Amino acid sequence: MSSAATAAPSSAATLDPRTRLLLEGPIAATLLRLAAPNVLVMGAQAGVGLIETFFIGKLGTEALAGMALVFPVVMLMQMMSAGAFGGGMASAVARALGARRQRDADALVFHALAIAAVLGLAFMAAALLGGRWLYARLGGSGAALEAALQYSDWVFAGALLVWIFNALAALIRGSGNMNLPAAVTVIGSLALVPLSPLLIFGWGPLPGLGIAGGALALLLYYAAGTVALGLHMLSGRSLLKPRWRELQWRLPLFADILRVGVVGAISTLATNLAIAISTALVAGFGAAAIAGYGTASRLEYLLVPLVFGFGAPLVSMVGTCVGAGQRERALRVAWIGAGLSAALTEAIGLAAALFPRAWLSLFDSDPAMLDAGTRYLQIVGPVYGFFGLALSLYFASQGAGRLLWPIIGNLARLLVAALGGWLALRAGWGLAAVFAAQALALIVYGLVNAIAIARGAWFGPLGTARAAAAPRPAP
Protein backbone atom coordinates (compact mmCIF):
# COMPACT_ATOMS: atom_id res chain seq x y z
CA MET A 1 0.00 0.00 0.00
CA SER A 2 2.76 2.44 0.92
CA SER A 3 4.65 1.85 -2.35
CA ALA A 4 1.52 2.52 -4.39
CA ALA A 5 0.85 5.68 -2.47
CA THR A 6 4.30 7.03 -3.11
CA ALA A 7 4.23 6.03 -6.79
CA ALA A 8 1.24 8.21 -7.63
CA PRO A 9 2.77 11.55 -6.60
CA SER A 10 6.00 10.67 -8.34
CA SER A 11 4.15 9.82 -11.52
CA ALA A 12 2.06 12.99 -11.26
CA ALA A 13 5.16 15.06 -10.71
CA THR A 14 6.55 13.93 -14.05
CA LEU A 15 3.34 14.87 -15.88
CA ASP A 16 3.97 17.51 -18.53
CA PRO A 17 2.29 20.86 -17.67
CA ARG A 18 0.33 20.83 -20.95
CA THR A 19 -1.06 17.38 -20.20
CA ARG A 20 -1.87 18.39 -16.61
CA LEU A 21 -3.83 21.39 -17.91
CA LEU A 22 -5.96 19.14 -20.13
CA LEU A 23 -6.71 16.80 -17.22
CA GLU A 24 -7.15 19.25 -14.36
CA GLY A 25 -7.73 22.79 -15.69
CA PRO A 26 -11.17 24.48 -15.60
CA ILE A 27 -12.95 23.24 -18.69
CA ALA A 28 -14.43 26.38 -20.26
CA ALA A 29 -11.40 28.54 -19.51
CA THR A 30 -9.00 25.88 -20.79
CA LEU A 31 -11.02 25.36 -23.97
CA LEU A 32 -11.12 29.08 -24.66
CA ARG A 33 -7.43 29.45 -23.90
CA LEU A 34 -6.53 26.63 -26.29
CA ALA A 35 -9.13 27.62 -28.87
CA ALA A 36 -8.09 31.28 -29.10
CA PRO A 37 -4.91 30.69 -31.10
CA ASN A 38 -6.60 27.85 -32.94
CA VAL A 39 -9.56 30.00 -34.00
CA LEU A 40 -7.00 32.54 -35.15
CA VAL A 41 -5.16 29.91 -37.15
CA MET A 42 -8.33 28.53 -38.68
CA GLY A 43 -9.59 32.01 -39.44
CA ALA A 44 -6.30 32.71 -41.16
CA GLN A 45 -6.55 29.44 -43.07
CA ALA A 46 -10.07 30.37 -44.10
CA GLY A 47 -8.65 33.71 -45.16
CA VAL A 48 -6.29 31.85 -47.49
CA GLY A 49 -9.30 30.59 -49.44
CA LEU A 50 -10.97 34.00 -49.38
CA ILE A 51 -7.87 35.77 -50.67
CA GLU A 52 -7.63 33.28 -53.51
CA THR A 53 -11.34 33.51 -54.36
CA PHE A 54 -11.30 37.30 -54.23
CA PHE A 55 -8.54 37.62 -56.80
CA ILE A 56 -9.75 34.78 -59.03
CA GLY A 57 -13.17 36.47 -59.05
CA LYS A 58 -11.49 39.36 -60.86
CA LEU A 59 -10.85 36.98 -63.77
CA GLY A 60 -14.61 36.70 -64.42
CA THR A 61 -17.66 34.58 -63.65
CA GLU A 62 -16.42 31.56 -65.64
CA ALA A 63 -13.21 31.41 -63.59
CA LEU A 64 -15.23 31.72 -60.38
CA ALA A 65 -17.54 28.91 -61.56
CA GLY A 66 -14.51 26.75 -62.39
CA MET A 67 -13.12 27.26 -58.93
CA ALA A 68 -16.54 26.42 -57.43
CA LEU A 69 -16.44 23.06 -59.25
CA VAL A 70 -13.05 22.19 -57.78
CA PHE A 71 -13.70 23.59 -54.32
CA PRO A 72 -15.62 20.56 -52.92
CA VAL A 73 -12.75 18.28 -53.93
CA VAL A 74 -10.09 20.59 -52.46
CA MET A 75 -12.10 20.81 -49.24
CA LEU A 76 -12.48 17.03 -49.21
CA MET A 77 -8.69 16.78 -49.17
CA GLN A 78 -8.38 19.51 -46.54
CA MET A 79 -11.03 18.00 -44.28
CA MET A 80 -9.62 14.49 -44.61
CA SER A 81 -6.01 15.54 -44.02
CA ALA A 82 -6.67 18.04 -41.20
CA GLY A 83 -9.97 16.81 -39.79
CA ALA A 84 -10.44 13.06 -40.35
CA PHE A 85 -6.95 11.59 -40.42
CA GLY A 86 -5.44 14.64 -38.74
CA GLY A 87 -7.97 14.17 -35.96
CA GLY A 88 -7.01 10.51 -35.74
CA MET A 89 -3.35 11.49 -35.39
CA ALA A 90 -4.06 14.11 -32.72
CA SER A 91 -6.40 11.74 -30.87
CA ALA A 92 -3.82 8.92 -30.85
CA VAL A 93 -1.08 11.23 -29.53
CA ALA A 94 -3.37 12.75 -26.89
CA ARG A 95 -4.50 9.35 -25.63
CA ALA A 96 -0.91 8.09 -25.52
CA LEU A 97 0.24 11.12 -23.54
CA GLY A 98 -2.82 10.92 -21.26
CA ALA A 99 -1.92 7.30 -20.48
CA ARG A 100 1.76 8.36 -20.07
CA ARG A 101 3.02 6.27 -22.98
CA GLN A 102 5.66 8.73 -24.17
CA ARG A 103 7.53 6.30 -26.41
CA ASP A 104 4.30 5.41 -28.24
CA ALA A 105 3.53 9.11 -28.68
CA ASP A 106 7.00 9.68 -30.18
CA ALA A 107 6.67 6.68 -32.51
CA LEU A 108 3.25 7.87 -33.72
CA VAL A 109 4.99 10.73 -35.55
CA PHE A 110 6.55 8.41 -38.14
CA HIS A 111 3.42 6.30 -38.44
CA ALA A 112 1.31 9.41 -39.04
CA LEU A 113 3.68 10.80 -41.69
CA ALA A 114 3.69 7.46 -43.52
CA ILE A 115 -0.11 7.48 -43.65
CA ALA A 116 -0.11 11.10 -44.84
CA ALA A 117 2.38 10.35 -47.63
CA VAL A 118 0.36 7.42 -48.99
CA LEU A 119 -2.93 9.33 -48.93
CA GLY A 120 -1.37 12.48 -50.42
CA LEU A 121 -0.07 10.50 -53.39
CA ALA A 122 -3.47 8.80 -53.77
CA PHE A 123 -5.27 12.15 -53.94
CA MET A 124 -2.75 13.44 -56.45
CA ALA A 125 -3.22 10.48 -58.78
CA ALA A 126 -7.02 10.49 -58.52
CA ALA A 127 -7.41 14.21 -59.25
CA LEU A 128 -4.87 14.36 -62.09
CA LEU A 129 -6.27 11.28 -63.84
CA GLY A 130 -9.98 11.70 -63.14
CA GLY A 131 -10.46 15.46 -62.84
CA ARG A 132 -12.09 16.08 -66.23
CA TRP A 133 -14.60 13.27 -65.72
CA LEU A 134 -15.49 14.46 -62.22
CA TYR A 135 -15.94 18.16 -62.95
CA ALA A 136 -17.99 17.39 -66.04
CA ARG A 137 -20.29 15.22 -63.90
CA LEU A 138 -20.65 18.12 -61.49
CA GLY A 139 -22.04 20.25 -64.32
CA GLY A 140 -18.88 21.87 -65.69
CA SER A 141 -18.65 22.68 -69.37
CA GLY A 142 -16.92 25.08 -71.73
CA ALA A 143 -14.71 27.77 -70.22
CA ALA A 144 -15.78 26.92 -66.66
CA LEU A 145 -14.63 23.31 -67.09
CA GLU A 146 -11.28 24.35 -68.55
CA ALA A 147 -10.71 26.80 -65.70
CA ALA A 148 -11.58 24.05 -63.21
CA LEU A 149 -9.05 21.66 -64.78
CA GLN A 150 -6.29 24.24 -64.82
CA TYR A 151 -6.78 25.09 -61.16
CA SER A 152 -7.23 21.45 -60.11
CA ASP A 153 -4.11 20.15 -61.87
CA TRP A 154 -1.91 22.70 -60.11
CA VAL A 155 -3.42 22.22 -56.65
CA PHE A 156 -3.36 18.43 -56.68
CA ALA A 157 0.14 18.25 -58.11
CA GLY A 158 1.12 19.42 -54.63
CA ALA A 159 -1.31 17.26 -52.65
CA LEU A 160 1.57 15.62 -50.78
CA LEU A 161 2.54 19.00 -49.28
CA VAL A 162 -1.00 19.56 -47.99
CA TRP A 163 -1.12 16.16 -46.29
CA ILE A 164 2.33 16.42 -44.66
CA PHE A 165 1.63 19.97 -43.43
CA ASN A 166 -1.69 18.96 -41.85
CA ALA A 167 -0.21 15.79 -40.33
CA LEU A 168 2.58 17.74 -38.62
CA ALA A 169 0.11 20.37 -37.38
CA ALA A 170 -2.22 17.67 -36.02
CA LEU A 171 0.58 15.88 -34.17
CA ILE A 172 1.74 19.12 -32.55
CA ARG A 173 -1.82 20.05 -31.56
CA GLY A 174 -2.37 16.55 -30.14
CA SER A 175 0.49 17.25 -27.73
CA GLY A 176 -1.41 20.32 -26.47
CA ASN A 177 0.60 22.94 -28.40
CA MET A 178 -1.92 25.09 -30.27
CA ASN A 179 0.30 28.17 -30.61
CA LEU A 180 2.89 26.99 -33.12
CA PRO A 181 0.47 25.84 -35.86
CA ALA A 182 -1.40 29.11 -35.30
CA ALA A 183 1.72 31.21 -35.77
CA VAL A 184 2.84 29.33 -38.89
CA THR A 185 -0.59 29.61 -40.52
CA VAL A 186 -1.09 33.29 -39.71
CA ILE A 187 2.33 34.26 -41.07
CA GLY A 188 1.73 32.19 -44.20
CA SER A 189 -1.70 33.74 -44.73
CA LEU A 190 -0.26 37.24 -44.51
CA ALA A 191 2.35 36.30 -47.11
CA LEU A 192 -0.42 35.20 -49.49
CA VAL A 193 -1.96 38.68 -49.60
CA PRO A 194 0.74 40.00 -51.99
CA LEU A 195 1.76 36.60 -53.39
CA SER A 196 -1.63 35.55 -54.82
CA PRO A 197 -2.27 38.64 -56.99
CA LEU A 198 1.39 38.68 -58.02
CA LEU A 199 1.16 35.16 -59.45
CA ILE A 200 -2.41 35.52 -60.80
CA PHE A 201 -1.99 38.87 -62.59
CA GLY A 202 1.79 39.20 -62.87
CA TRP A 203 3.89 42.32 -62.31
CA GLY A 204 6.61 43.88 -64.41
CA PRO A 205 8.60 41.14 -66.15
CA LEU A 206 6.77 38.41 -64.21
CA PRO A 207 3.90 37.07 -66.38
CA GLY A 208 0.46 36.46 -64.90
CA LEU A 209 -0.51 32.79 -64.56
CA GLY A 210 -4.26 33.39 -64.24
CA ILE A 211 -6.19 30.90 -62.14
CA ALA A 212 -3.11 28.64 -61.95
CA GLY A 213 -1.30 31.44 -60.10
CA GLY A 214 -3.76 31.17 -57.20
CA ALA A 215 -3.07 27.44 -56.93
CA LEU A 216 0.71 27.96 -57.07
CA ALA A 217 0.56 30.57 -54.29
CA LEU A 218 -1.35 28.08 -52.14
CA LEU A 219 1.27 25.37 -52.68
CA LEU A 220 4.11 27.74 -51.78
CA TYR A 221 2.27 28.49 -48.53
CA TYR A 222 2.04 24.78 -47.67
CA ALA A 223 5.68 24.15 -48.60
CA ALA A 224 6.97 26.91 -46.30
CA GLY A 225 4.64 25.80 -43.48
CA THR A 226 5.79 22.19 -43.76
CA VAL A 227 9.43 23.25 -43.37
CA ALA A 228 8.61 25.39 -40.30
CA LEU A 229 6.62 22.64 -38.52
CA GLY A 230 9.18 19.99 -39.42
CA LEU A 231 12.05 22.03 -37.97
CA HIS A 232 10.10 22.45 -34.72
CA MET A 233 9.48 18.70 -34.52
CA LEU A 234 13.22 18.07 -34.83
CA SER A 235 14.10 20.67 -32.21
CA GLY A 236 14.33 20.08 -28.49
CA ARG A 237 11.27 22.28 -27.87
CA SER A 238 8.76 19.68 -29.09
CA LEU A 239 7.00 17.47 -26.55
CA LEU A 240 7.12 14.75 -29.22
CA LYS A 241 10.69 13.55 -29.85
CA PRO A 242 10.72 11.07 -32.75
CA ARG A 243 13.97 9.10 -33.01
CA TRP A 244 14.57 7.37 -36.30
CA ARG A 245 17.15 5.00 -34.81
CA GLU A 246 14.53 3.67 -32.37
CA LEU A 247 11.76 3.35 -34.95
CA GLN A 248 9.86 0.09 -35.15
CA TRP A 249 6.86 -0.08 -37.46
CA ARG A 250 4.03 -1.34 -35.27
CA LEU A 251 0.60 -2.26 -36.57
CA PRO A 252 -1.18 -1.23 -33.32
CA LEU A 253 0.04 2.37 -33.78
CA PHE A 254 -1.18 2.46 -37.39
CA ALA A 255 -4.49 1.03 -36.15
CA ASP A 256 -4.72 3.65 -33.41
CA ILE A 257 -4.69 6.39 -36.06
CA LEU A 258 -6.67 4.61 -38.76
CA ARG A 259 -9.57 3.42 -36.62
CA VAL A 260 -10.42 7.07 -36.02
CA GLY A 261 -9.17 8.44 -39.35
CA VAL A 262 -10.92 5.98 -41.67
CA VAL A 263 -14.23 6.33 -39.87
CA GLY A 264 -13.81 10.12 -39.88
CA ALA A 265 -13.03 9.98 -43.60
CA ILE A 266 -16.40 8.38 -44.26
CA SER A 267 -18.08 11.23 -42.43
CA THR A 268 -15.98 13.79 -44.31
CA LEU A 269 -16.79 12.12 -47.63
CA ALA A 270 -20.50 12.32 -46.80
CA THR A 271 -20.19 16.06 -46.04
CA ASN A 272 -18.44 16.83 -49.31
CA LEU A 273 -20.65 14.50 -51.31
CA ALA A 274 -23.69 16.40 -50.05
CA ILE A 275 -22.15 19.65 -51.33
CA ALA A 276 -21.07 18.04 -54.61
CA ILE A 277 -24.52 16.60 -55.29
CA SER A 278 -26.11 19.94 -54.51
CA THR A 279 -23.65 21.60 -56.89
CA ALA A 280 -24.73 19.19 -59.62
CA LEU A 281 -28.41 19.95 -58.91
CA VAL A 282 -27.74 23.70 -59.04
CA ALA A 283 -25.81 23.29 -62.31
CA GLY A 284 -29.10 22.93 -64.18
CA PHE A 285 -29.72 26.64 -63.56
CA GLY A 286 -26.53 27.80 -65.34
CA ALA A 287 -22.95 28.89 -64.66
CA ALA A 288 -24.03 32.01 -62.74
CA ALA A 289 -26.10 29.85 -60.38
CA ILE A 290 -23.11 27.54 -59.83
CA ALA A 291 -20.93 30.57 -59.07
CA GLY A 292 -23.54 32.00 -56.68
CA TYR A 293 -24.12 28.75 -54.86
CA GLY A 294 -20.39 27.96 -54.75
CA THR A 295 -19.55 31.38 -53.35
CA ALA A 296 -22.36 31.29 -50.79
CA SER A 297 -21.74 27.70 -49.68
CA ARG A 298 -18.08 28.59 -49.27
CA LEU A 299 -19.21 30.31 -46.07
CA GLU A 300 -20.42 26.92 -44.80
CA TYR A 301 -17.04 25.44 -45.65
CA LEU A 302 -15.36 28.30 -43.80
CA LEU A 303 -17.31 27.30 -40.69
CA VAL A 304 -15.36 24.02 -40.72
CA PRO A 305 -11.98 25.62 -39.94
CA LEU A 306 -13.62 27.99 -37.45
CA VAL A 307 -15.28 25.12 -35.56
CA PHE A 308 -11.98 23.27 -35.87
CA GLY A 309 -10.61 26.09 -33.73
CA PHE A 310 -12.60 24.53 -30.89
CA GLY A 311 -12.43 21.05 -32.39
CA ALA A 312 -8.65 20.60 -32.09
CA PRO A 313 -8.67 21.38 -28.34
CA LEU A 314 -11.71 19.10 -28.02
CA VAL A 315 -9.79 16.23 -29.61
CA SER A 316 -6.82 16.83 -27.31
CA MET A 317 -8.82 17.38 -24.11
CA VAL A 318 -11.31 14.55 -24.63
CA GLY A 319 -8.58 12.16 -25.82
CA THR A 320 -6.32 12.95 -22.87
CA CYS A 321 -9.20 12.56 -20.40
CA VAL A 322 -10.25 9.23 -21.95
CA GLY A 323 -6.64 8.01 -21.86
CA ALA A 324 -6.48 8.92 -18.16
CA GLY A 325 -9.85 7.26 -17.43
CA GLN A 326 -11.70 10.54 -16.71
CA ARG A 327 -14.88 9.76 -18.66
CA GLU A 328 -17.24 12.19 -16.96
CA ARG A 329 -14.84 15.07 -17.51
CA ALA A 330 -14.51 14.03 -21.18
CA LEU A 331 -18.29 14.37 -21.60
CA ARG A 332 -18.40 17.75 -19.87
CA VAL A 333 -15.64 18.98 -22.17
CA ALA A 334 -17.63 17.80 -25.20
CA TRP A 335 -20.85 19.59 -24.23
CA ILE A 336 -19.17 22.86 -23.28
CA GLY A 337 -17.22 22.88 -26.55
CA ALA A 338 -20.35 22.04 -28.53
CA GLY A 339 -22.26 24.91 -26.95
CA LEU A 340 -19.52 27.41 -27.76
CA SER A 341 -19.24 26.18 -31.36
CA ALA A 342 -23.01 26.22 -31.95
CA ALA A 343 -23.27 29.79 -30.66
CA LEU A 344 -20.43 30.95 -32.91
CA THR A 345 -21.76 29.33 -36.10
CA GLU A 346 -25.33 30.44 -35.45
CA ALA A 347 -24.21 34.04 -35.08
CA ILE A 348 -22.36 33.86 -38.39
CA GLY A 349 -25.31 32.21 -40.12
CA LEU A 350 -27.79 34.82 -38.93
CA ALA A 351 -25.48 37.65 -40.00
CA ALA A 352 -25.13 36.06 -43.47
CA ALA A 353 -28.91 35.65 -43.79
CA LEU A 354 -29.52 39.28 -42.84
CA PHE A 355 -26.75 40.75 -45.01
CA PRO A 356 -26.07 38.20 -47.79
CA ARG A 357 -24.81 40.67 -50.38
CA ALA A 358 -22.15 41.98 -48.03
CA TRP A 359 -20.50 38.57 -48.47
CA LEU A 360 -21.38 37.75 -52.08
CA SER A 361 -20.46 41.11 -53.60
CA LEU A 362 -16.88 40.64 -52.41
CA PHE A 363 -16.39 38.15 -55.25
CA ASP A 364 -18.65 39.10 -58.17
CA SER A 365 -21.40 41.51 -59.20
CA ASP A 366 -23.32 39.34 -61.67
CA PRO A 367 -27.07 39.73 -60.81
CA ALA A 368 -27.89 36.05 -61.38
CA MET A 369 -24.96 34.98 -59.23
CA LEU A 370 -26.02 37.37 -56.44
CA ASP A 371 -29.62 36.15 -56.60
CA ALA A 372 -28.70 32.45 -56.27
CA GLY A 373 -26.23 33.12 -53.46
CA THR A 374 -28.69 35.33 -51.57
CA ARG A 375 -31.38 32.67 -51.63
CA TYR A 376 -28.97 30.07 -50.29
CA LEU A 377 -27.77 32.23 -47.38
CA GLN A 378 -31.28 33.33 -46.41
CA ILE A 379 -32.55 29.75 -46.29
CA VAL A 380 -29.55 27.80 -44.95
CA GLY A 381 -27.73 30.47 -42.91
CA PRO A 382 -30.22 30.50 -39.98
CA VAL A 383 -29.55 26.79 -39.24
CA TYR A 384 -25.75 26.99 -39.26
CA GLY A 385 -25.85 26.53 -35.47
CA PHE A 386 -26.87 22.90 -35.99
CA PHE A 387 -23.85 22.45 -38.24
CA GLY A 388 -21.55 23.86 -35.54
CA LEU A 389 -23.17 21.59 -32.94
CA ALA A 390 -22.75 18.47 -35.08
CA LEU A 391 -19.20 19.23 -36.17
CA SER A 392 -17.90 20.01 -32.66
CA LEU A 393 -19.41 16.76 -31.34
CA TYR A 394 -17.74 14.97 -34.25
CA PHE A 395 -14.34 16.32 -33.15
CA ALA A 396 -15.06 15.40 -29.53
CA SER A 397 -16.00 11.89 -30.68
CA GLN A 398 -12.64 11.66 -32.44
CA GLY A 399 -10.94 12.32 -29.12
CA ALA A 400 -13.05 9.62 -27.48
CA GLY A 401 -12.40 7.20 -30.35
CA ARG A 402 -16.19 6.74 -30.80
CA LEU A 403 -17.29 7.82 -34.27
CA LEU A 404 -20.22 5.56 -35.14
CA TRP A 405 -22.99 8.09 -34.48
CA PRO A 406 -21.26 11.06 -36.12
CA ILE A 407 -21.03 8.92 -39.25
CA ILE A 408 -24.70 7.96 -39.03
CA GLY A 409 -25.59 11.63 -38.56
CA ASN A 410 -23.56 12.68 -41.58
CA LEU A 411 -24.99 9.93 -43.75
CA ALA A 412 -28.47 11.07 -42.68
CA ARG A 413 -27.50 14.58 -43.73
CA LEU A 414 -26.35 13.30 -47.13
CA LEU A 415 -29.59 11.37 -47.66
CA VAL A 416 -31.82 14.32 -46.76
CA ALA A 417 -29.83 16.83 -48.85
CA ALA A 418 -29.51 14.62 -51.94
CA LEU A 419 -32.93 12.97 -51.94
CA GLY A 420 -34.74 16.12 -50.81
CA GLY A 421 -33.02 18.25 -53.46
CA TRP A 422 -33.75 15.73 -56.21
CA LEU A 423 -37.42 15.45 -55.21
CA ALA A 424 -37.68 19.26 -55.10
CA LEU A 425 -36.44 19.52 -58.67
CA ARG A 426 -38.70 16.67 -59.83
CA ALA A 427 -41.65 18.50 -58.33
CA GLY A 428 -40.62 21.72 -60.09
CA TRP A 429 -40.20 23.70 -56.87
CA GLY A 430 -37.01 25.39 -58.07
CA LEU A 431 -33.72 26.45 -56.56
CA ALA A 432 -35.11 27.59 -53.20
CA ALA A 433 -36.46 24.10 -52.50
CA VAL A 434 -33.02 22.57 -53.15
CA PHE A 435 -31.59 24.93 -50.53
CA ALA A 436 -34.43 24.12 -48.11
CA ALA A 437 -33.47 20.44 -48.34
CA GLN A 438 -29.90 21.39 -47.38
CA ALA A 439 -31.16 23.37 -44.37
CA LEU A 440 -33.23 20.41 -43.18
CA ALA A 441 -30.20 18.16 -43.65
CA LEU A 442 -28.09 20.30 -41.30
CA ILE A 443 -30.80 20.17 -38.63
CA VAL A 444 -30.90 16.37 -38.87
CA TYR A 445 -27.10 16.18 -38.67
CA GLY A 446 -26.96 18.22 -35.47
CA LEU A 447 -29.82 16.45 -33.73
CA VAL A 448 -28.60 12.92 -34.48
CA ASN A 449 -25.15 13.64 -33.00
CA ALA A 450 -26.46 15.45 -29.92
CA ILE A 451 -29.17 12.91 -29.06
CA ALA A 452 -26.82 9.93 -29.53
CA ILE A 453 -24.14 11.30 -27.19
CA ALA A 454 -26.72 12.45 -24.65
CA ARG A 455 -28.11 8.90 -24.57
CA GLY A 456 -24.70 7.35 -23.84
CA ALA A 457 -23.19 6.57 -27.24
CA TRP A 458 -19.64 6.94 -25.89
CA PHE A 459 -19.57 5.17 -22.54
CA GLY A 460 -23.16 4.18 -21.83
CA PRO A 461 -25.36 5.93 -19.26
CA LEU A 462 -22.71 7.03 -16.74
CA GLY A 463 -25.32 8.31 -14.32
CA THR A 464 -27.02 4.90 -14.17
CA ALA A 465 -23.68 3.17 -13.66
CA ARG A 466 -22.79 5.49 -10.77
CA ALA A 467 -26.17 4.94 -9.13
CA ALA A 468 -25.79 1.16 -9.37
CA ALA A 469 -22.30 1.29 -7.89
CA ALA A 470 -23.20 3.62 -5.00
CA PRO A 471 -23.56 2.01 -1.56
CA ARG A 472 -27.15 1.68 -0.42
CA PRO A 473 -28.16 3.05 2.97
CA ALA A 474 -28.80 0.51 5.70
CA PRO A 475 -32.48 -0.25 6.25
UniProtKB/TrEMBL annotation:
Does the keyword section mention Signal? no
Q: Which residues cross the membrane?
A: 39-57, 63-87, 108-134, 154-172, 184-203, 209-236, 257-290, 302-322, 334-356, 376-396, 403-423, 429-448
In terms of domain of life, where is this protein from? Bacteria
Q: Does the keyword S-adenosyl-L-methionine apply?
A: no
**Membrane-protein topology:** Multi-pass membrane protein
Name the InterPro entries on file: MATE_fam (IPR002528), MdtK-like (IPR048279), Membrane_Transporter-Flippase (IPR052031)
Where's it found, cell-wise? Cell inner membrane
What's in the keyword line of the UniProt record?
Cell membrane, Membrane, Transmembrane, Transmembrane helix, Transport
- Full protein name: MATE family efflux transporter
Q: Look up and give the organism this protein is from.
A: Roseateles violae
